[in-house]
Amino acid sequence: MSLPSNNEMAAAVAVSRFGLGARPGELAAAVTDPKAWLKAQIDHKGADQPPGLLPTSRDRFQAYLAARVDAQSLKREAVAVAEQEAMTAPPSPGQDMAAAAPVGQSPLDRLKAERRAAQKPLRDGIANEILARAQLAATTPAPFRERWALFWFNHFTVSTAKPAAAALVGPFEREAIRPHVFGRFDELLYASSIHPAMLMYLDQERSTGPDSLGGMRRNAGLNENLAREIMELHTVGADSGYTQADVTEFARALTGYSIGVEKDGDALVGRPLYRPQLHEPGVRTVMGRRYPDTGQGQARAILADLAASPHTADHIARKLAIHFVADDPPTTLVARLRSAYLDSRGDLAVVATALIDAPEAWSPAPTKFKRPYEFIISSYRIAGAAPIDPDRELIQPLTTMGERPMAAPQPNGWSEQAGDWTAPDAIVKRLNWSAAFAAAHAPPDAPLQVADAALGARLSAPTRLAVMRAESRPEAMTLVLMSPEFQRR
Predict the structure, then answer these.
(1) Cβ-contact 352, 310 below 8 angstroms
(2) Strand pairing report for 272-274 and 257-259
(3) Closest to 315 (Cα-Cα) out of 286, 291, 289, 351
(4) Cβ distance 460 to 486 under 8 Å?
(5) CB-based contacts of 451: which residues, under 8 Å, 6+ apart?
(6) Which residue, 430, 449, 450, 447, is CA-closest to 383?
(7) Contact indicator for 487, 367 with CB cutoff of 8 Å
């Protein structure tokens, strides 16, 4: 067996580390010039949108409001029924308990079932979003563009783990993240910060300036969640030297950003809406800079300065290096990405190009361990297939593996560290899933041909030998999926 050429190894790195795993024929498409293949996927118009006619934030917000009204009504009725049942006299000591039990479904059980039915459109909507984005990831010919978008969605986490925001998570990714991932970071930051999903996820829609007109009328208060997470997670980072006073001042500047509801007019329902009567008046000082009271423009000015900060450049550069290259990335790579960010004033297309050009990103040794979502998507790609059942093929297995889709448990998103995904029990779950997947999706091609098409020059001699000795195509496929070179990128 001849040694792979440099381009063959670079193509294998391109499709796995920068991409989402090779689909049939993808290595051949990348091998001529792997860097050019990746750079051609950078698109100033943004990332691709998932297929299908998915609802807007407005549509989903209206569905959320309707389900909330139904749920509240059913809850009140359930409480009344429960109180009535509690007041019902118990059977006499001599009465048969079975004869005294109601026949069929009790009124309380009926109400619970009706409540679940009222929530079903929301659950189905989330499942449709999960399926659509997975189908895009499994079939896209531009996997670097999709991975780049997924990175930014995790950076600006909004999660279905919080019921109030669950309905809007899919539209958030489609409306606030994907259109801006190759634009300027300040535009991405602003779009994500004021989107209704983020406002609901971090309780900003309830934040009111205490001295604002609305605050004085209803004794409402300030909520600092959005301000804190923007500073700690989205921009300058926890080690940048900001203080609690900076968070509070920023939170005051953010007051007024809210969501349109029915009383605001049909066209504004579920859309970002600035309410000046809720804005805390006054000059704000954040990280040593003073911002005049320009109403809506005050918070936007702070966001722009946070985006331009060298601390933000450090924070973003390190996160990108960790995601794409190594849990403990080379300092030289972080410095390259930081310089690209600052020199371009946060142009994310320039930063993406710098990542592709960085020699540290092309080490043949795979150092990143795939998260469950990456693992499942790359498995579909090797099989040349795509999921069709959101619950059975995505939600259930990903939940079992610890990464329920669109449901990160905290605002800092899913972990990028291998140690959080490599516990023995987690590996067993991957093995069980791989065997079932291989039984259903093993391609008809010769097993070695499948392994070569998936891993290219990264296919190791031990894995090649194991595949050759497999007694069936599903067994060979399982061995490929569980191989170290497929589990890592």
Answers:
(1) no
(2) antiparallel
(3) 351
(4) no
(5) 459, 463, 464, 467, 476, 480
(6) 450
(7) no
- Domain positions in the chain are 6-48+367-487, 202-308, 310-362
Q: Which run of H or of E encompasses 274?
A: strand 272-274
Residue type, 321: A
Burial class (CB in 10 A: 0-12, 13-18, 19+), 390: buried
3-state secondary structure of 46: coil
Question: Over the stretch 42-96, which tens digit does the pLDDT of each residue have?
Answer: 999 999 999 999 999 999 998 888 887 655 555 665 566 566 666 665 555 554 4
Residue 74: the pLDDT is 55
| Joined tokens for residue 282 | 């006054």
Q: What is the pLDDT of residue 75?
A: 61
Sorted by sequence, the CB contacts under 8 Å of residue 220 that are 6+ apart come out as 206, 208, 210, 214, 278
CA distance 416 to 323: 6
**What is the per-residue pLDDT across 331-385, written as a single tens digit (0 to 9) for each?**
999 999 999 999 999 999 999 999 999 999 999 999 999 999 999 999 999 999 9
Nearest to 329 by CA among 337, 351, 353: 337
Distance CA 227, CA 12 (A): 41
Least Cα distance to 18 among 136, 112, 109, 149 occurs for 149
Which of 192, 165, 196, 194 shows the shortest CA–CA distance to 269?
196
Q: What are phi and psi of 285, to 5 degrees?
A: -125, 120
> Would you call 143 helix, strand, or coil by DSSP?
helix
First to last CA, the chain: 23
N residues, the chain: 489
Yes or no: say if 208 and 276 are a contact pair by the CB < 8 Å rule.
Answer: no
d(CA 294, CA 282): 9
Our CA angle for 306, 307, 309, nearest 5°, is 65
pLDDT digits (tens, 9 = 90+) for 205-251: 989 999 999 998 877 799 999 999 999 999 999 999 999 999 999 99
CA distances from 242 to 123, 225, 245, 285, 361 (A): 39, 15, 8, 11, 32
Contact 323, 17 (CB under 8 A): no
Contact by Cβ (8 Å): 201, 171: no
Q: Which token pair is 91?
A: 């059977």
